[in-house]
């Protein structure tokens, strides 16, 4: 089995369909219909990742996240909601939710997010082991693209064939968010929230993001593996396509 997952959704058809899809992908999957059952399941069993509905009768998704932040902080969470808002996005960030998907998310979107979430969990566990042992220095987060371009997230450096550039903190966070979520369209307000840490109006978000993205694109122009994939989505925001 590739990972231990838990699906939490009060809609029986949605819950069963997603559970069946994940089992076909080789995951060890359990499912529960509400937040109380989710917390109880995590008390008894080790869970790598939870696909969690936001709005449920009784204990909702936010309450589950708060409980798991204490009960099982290493468990990755993908929040599914049909009622996205900036308030819930802020809460999701506060509890370090792995992903925040708007229903109806496609199976491919959910599967891709799960793979990223499990990879992130494995990386965090490996880093923790190295830190505890003290025998190996924990390396920075590095992403290598097919053409040899290397993005060093921690140092905010992009390099290839001996040529390198240094990103500003804001440019580094922007690129990190986009690259780590390929195919996910971020609105302007979501990006400002992730980069600057506050909820901006649409007009303010436009004034912040447009020059920031322009500067980033200009800096990475000689690195097509990055430059060519930072794309604007008309009327919405940006995506790493």
Describe this structure in words.
By secondary structure, the protein is an alpha/beta fold. It has two domains: about 5-130, Response regulator (Rossmann fold); about 140-240, Arc Repressor Mutant, subunit A, CATH 1.10.10. Helices cover about 45% and strands about 20% of the residues. The protein has nine helices and twelve strands. The strands form three sheets. Strands 2-1-3-4-5 form a five-stranded parallel beta sheet. It has a four-stranded antiparallel beta sheet with strand order 6-7-8-9, with no helix packed on it. Strands 10-12-11 form a three-stranded antiparallel beta sheet. Helix 4 runs parallel beside helix 7. The longest helix has 27 residues, at about 105-135. The radius of gyration is 19 Å and the shape is globular. The chain starts with a strand and ends with a strand. The model has no long low-confidence stretch (mean pLDDT about 85).
């Amino acid at each position: 089995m590739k990972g231990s997952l838990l699906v939490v959704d009060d809609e029986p058809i949605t819950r069963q369909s997603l559970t069946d899809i994940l089992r076909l992908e080789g995951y060890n999957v359990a499912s529960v219909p509400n937040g109380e059952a989710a917390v109880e399941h995590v008390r008894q069993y080790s869970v790598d990742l939870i696909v969690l509905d936001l709005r449920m009768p009784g204990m909702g998704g936010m309450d589950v996240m708060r409980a798991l932040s204490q009960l099982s902080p290493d468990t990755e969470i993908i929040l599914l909601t049909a009622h996205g808002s900036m308030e819930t996005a802020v809460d999701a960030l506060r509890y370090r939710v792995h992903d925040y998907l708007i229903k109806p998310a496609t199976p491919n979107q959910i599967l891709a997010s799960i793979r990223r979430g499990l990879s992130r969990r494995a990386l965090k566990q490996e880093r923790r082991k190295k830190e505890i042992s003290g025998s190996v220095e924990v390396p920075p987060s590095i992403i290598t693209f097919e053409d040899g371009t290397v993005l060093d997230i921690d140092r905010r450096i992009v390099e290839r064939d001996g040529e390198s550039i240094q990103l500003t903190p804001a440019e580094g966070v922007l690129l990190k968010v986009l690259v780590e979520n390929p195919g996910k369209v971020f609105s302007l307000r979501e990006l400002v929230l992730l980069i600057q840490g506050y909820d901006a109006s649409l007009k303010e978000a436009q004034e912040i993001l447009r020059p920031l993205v322009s500067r980033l694109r200009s800096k990475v122009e000689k690195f097509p593996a990055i430059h060519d994939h930072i794309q604007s989505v008309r009327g919405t925001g940006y995506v790493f396509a």
